[in-house]
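Today's session is about reading a structure prediction critically. Students often jump straight to the picture, but the first step is always the sequence itself: look for stretches that repeat, for charged clusters, for runs of hydrophobic residues. Only then move on to the predicted structure, which in these notes is written as discrete structure tokens rather than atom positions. Here is the chain we will use throughout the hour.
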Amino acid sequence: MAEGAVLGADGLRRCGWGESTEDYRHYHDTEWGRPVHGDDALFERVCLEAFQSGLSWLTILRRREGFRAAFAGFEIARVAEFGEADVERLLADPGIIRNRAKIEAAIANARTARDLDGGLDALIWRFAGEPDRPAPRTLGEVPAVTPESTALAKALKQAGFRFVGPTTAYALMQACGLVDDHLADCHVRTAGKR
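Below is the predicted structure for this chain, in token form.
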């Protein structure tokens, strides 16, 4: 994969990973790095990032609608009420990643999010990066972990969340627009997406 932004067949420069498949291209151009707010929307992202652990993000993207159907649209109040029968149902669902520990973590995380003072949005967005930090020029300049992601992971764990280490927290921050890791000459960054 190219280290810098690559020119697509459509004449637009993208972060190298964003040009690798049609699924990634659409996700890169329309969603990744754009600010996400709302407890349910952020809960979905926390869950999907946890399910992605050890897998490619493309695997998750391609099953996203299956996840949404299986997890009641990621409505925190509904998922928090899931019980053992739901765990068994989810373990039998071929539309998602069938990992008991991750399924149980998603349900436990819904209960934690439901009971969180101030809400999940407020907790996560406390750790937003500096908006004017220099844009990375290559993928090699994009970190996997930052002090902010380490602090976010710690805060989430202290609140009771599971499957939220510093690397997962940084991927969440990138995906939800808390940091902007689009490369300097990527069309999304240069178009002023914010």
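Discussion point for the tutorial: The beta strands are 6-7, 13-14.
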